[in-house]
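Human: For the file, kindly provide a plain-text protein record giving the amino acid sequence and the backbone structure tokens, at your earliest convenience.
Assistant:
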Amino acid sequence: METQVWVLGGVAGFLVAVLLLLFRVFLQNMGSLKTLINEIRMELVKQNEQLKTLFNKAIDQKEKVDRLEERVAEVEREIYSKRE
């Protein structure tokens, strides 16, 4: 009977050690996962800023095109008025 208690104690101790090791590995992986998530988040923030910059440039170009179209229309009106 005493041998069984020692064996059960040894098995229980071994299982506790394995569980602690698995828990440690899990925590290390969580740290890696958090690092990966933070890196992805930082990359998304960077890309978002680039998209904002490109969007603002596109708006500026659209405004320039609109002004040029207005100027072309003015010149066309001047040409037609001189012909009459």
The helical segments are 2-83. The first helix runs from residue 2 to 83. The chain has one helix and no strands.
